[in-house]
Write a sequence for this structure.
């Protein structure tokens, strides 16, 4: 799985087989005339008042859609193809009489056109801009915070679906991916249907996903297929702000369906299209318009904000550490290397060494939200070459369990905050990707020691080297056992073997083969690692020597502990993996805006 920008980063052209694949799929931008293919790009089908059937804008688009569906494993019939082609030819609009290159100032007067296309929006004077329409958020329509019924409103939104029958037009407008409202235009006795005809032609000429300004009167209505289900807009004016391409890489309606619905349709004579992952990622900006995918990024934002909020309340200070460093900040992970004015530098694998140096500088406790780079050639559904780290470091009074307590309470704050503050987003996501809220103990952390974990796995018949790191499957198995026996999706696997931990990890005093370190396991997968750190320079140098880590590039880091520093510890969490596991996503790439992977 990759995005097109990967090829640019590598300095090469897009592979020819990808160009061929994309060109063969471009014509899938318009639906076939099938009642099994709803047009609304939201999680539900179109409005209940909408008329059945829709026309493709051109015969070529319909034929291309059939070819694309066949390529993706579906099988529309030849009769369906003929019907789509014939209908498209019959209703192809003539938009030459629609005003174009309008200045925004022209839409306000009593003589303004009913419909039209803006020129590129550039208002010359700030005073003129102040007189232009003020748009109402679609999410406010039909709510106490929004305009009153019978008010005239302006909205700016995308055209998500259009249905026209005769001189009746039904349009679903979508704003910021999550909010939809229906706009309608019917034949008027006052003008003999002239305005209704103009509106119908205008919207039939617009490709889906075009951005429009629409003025209308808000009236009460029952529209079950839109988020604003108690009102609709009676269209008075409509102007295109930005016209989408006639051919989209895929339909938002196809990309918004749950996998269960697609699977169920395969046994019918009208199977749904499955939009493949590589096609989604090649046009990721379009894929993020899918309501569930847009909501995922909002949840990701909330997790980051709640992490900051929890630690700021504790008096932690947010820092921003360098990402170009001289050595390696982690052991056992590959690094990206680059030239730094004749010297070799690497992209930081974590902010680890700078978090610790910040405590030597007498900051009371620090955290960072920033990029982390790992040059690991791991083509899995849970690994990335660049991800966002949620890191913290804090002084320890007497025992590193103090850090575990803070990490646990921070994660509890995140989980409770997401459920409380992102209810609408979670409902949208879970309609496409079913999941349940995680079981997170609120009365203190669930801690499982390494020896106990080995015993639990042995009881399940898993024979392994007790001093070797866990495999992915062993992590999942242990997570299932802890959920069953302790009722927790989140636990801390404590006292890892020293041999599998980074050089800066503090060994146990009584059993140096074990360490004062832990992993955070969430729904059977690691979301982060933490430990008490070596704050004694001599011990740190000995650890580097024992593990074969060059100490010279780390000289400033080691020297920062020669002038007195509090015992300390911390954790590094992965934002995208937290989001993936919280939402039950099958692939971490769905939790990333733009993926960087091998």
């Amino acid at each position: 799985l990759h995005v097109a920008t990967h090829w640019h980063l590598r300095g090469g052209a897009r592979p020819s087989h990808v160009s061929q694949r994309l060109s063969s799929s471009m014509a899938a931008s318009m639906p076939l005339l099938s009642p099994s293919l709803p047009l609304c790009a939201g999680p539900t089908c179109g409005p209940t008042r909408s008329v059945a059937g829709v026309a493709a804008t051109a015969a070529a688009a319909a034929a291309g859609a059939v070819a694309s569906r066949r390529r993706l494993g579906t099988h529309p019939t030849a009769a369906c193809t003929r019907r789509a082609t014939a209908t498209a030819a019959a209703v192809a609009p003539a938009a030459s009489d629609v005003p174009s290159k309008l200045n925004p100032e022209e839409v306000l007067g009593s003589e303004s056109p009913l419909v039209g296309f803006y020129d590129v929006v550039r208002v010359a004077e700030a005073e003129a801009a102040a007189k232009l329409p003020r748009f109402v958020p679609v999410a406010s329509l039909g709510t106490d915070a929004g305009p009153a019924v019978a008010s005239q409103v302006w909205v700016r939104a995308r055209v998500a679906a259009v249905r026209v029958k005769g001189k009746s037009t039904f349009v679903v407008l979508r704003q910021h991916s999550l909010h939809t409202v229906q706009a309608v235009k019917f034949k008027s006795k006052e003008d003999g249907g002239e305005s209704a005809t103009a509106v119908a032609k205008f919207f039939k000429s617009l490709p889906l996903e075009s951005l429009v300004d629409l003025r209308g009167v808000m009236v009460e209505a029952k529209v079950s297929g839109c988020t604003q289900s108690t009102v609709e807009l009676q269209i008075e004016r409509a102007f295109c702000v930005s016209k989408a391409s006639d051919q989209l890489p895929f339909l938002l309606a196809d990309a918004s369906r749950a996998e269960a619905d697609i699977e169920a349709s395969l046994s019918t004579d009208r199977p749904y299209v499955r939009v493949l992952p590589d096609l989604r990622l090649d046009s990721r900006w379009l894929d993020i318009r899918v309501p569930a995918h847009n909501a995922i990024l909002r949840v990701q934002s909330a997790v980051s904000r709640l992490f900051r909020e929890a630690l700021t309340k504790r008096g932690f200070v947010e820092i921003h550490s360098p990402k170009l460093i001289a050595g390696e900040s982690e052991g056992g992970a590959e690094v990206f290397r680059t030239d730094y004015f004749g010297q070799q530098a690497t992209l930081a694998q974590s902010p680890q060494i700078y978090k610790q140096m910040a405590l030597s500088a007498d900051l009371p406790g620090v955290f960072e939200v920033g990029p982390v780079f790992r040059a690991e050639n791991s083509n899995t559904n849970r690994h990335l070459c660049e991800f966002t780290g949620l890191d913290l470091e804090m002084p320890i009074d007497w025992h590193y369990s103090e850090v575990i307590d803070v990490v646990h309470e921070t994660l509890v704050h995140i989980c409770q905050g997401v459920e409380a503050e992102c209810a609408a987003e979670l409902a949208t996501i879970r309609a496409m990707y079913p999941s349940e809220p995680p079981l997170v103990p609120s009365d203190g952390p669930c801690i499982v020691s390494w020896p106990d974990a080995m015993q639990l796995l042995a009881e399940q018949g898993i024979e392994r080297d007790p001093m070797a790191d866990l495999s992915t499957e062993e992590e999942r198995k242990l997570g299932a056992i802890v959920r069953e026996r302790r009722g927790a999706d989140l636990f801390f696997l404590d006292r890892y073997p020293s041999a599998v931990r980074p050089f800066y990890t503090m060994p146990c005093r009584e059993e140096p083969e074990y360490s004062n370190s832990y992993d955070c396991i969430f729904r059977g997968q690691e979301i982060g690692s933490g430990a008490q750190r070596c704050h004694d320079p001599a011990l740190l140098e000995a650890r580097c020597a024992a593990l074969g880590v060059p100490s010279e590039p780390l000289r400033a880091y080691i020297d920062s502990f020669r002038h007195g520093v509090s015992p300390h510890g911390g954790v590094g969490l992965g934002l995208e993996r937290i989001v993936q596991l919280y939402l039950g996503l099958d692939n971490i790439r769905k939790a990333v805006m733009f993926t960087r992977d091998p």
Notes: The radius of gyration is 29 Å. DSSP finds 19 helices and 17 strands in the chain. The chain has a mean pLDDT of 85. The CA atoms of residues 449 and 494 lie 5 Å apart.
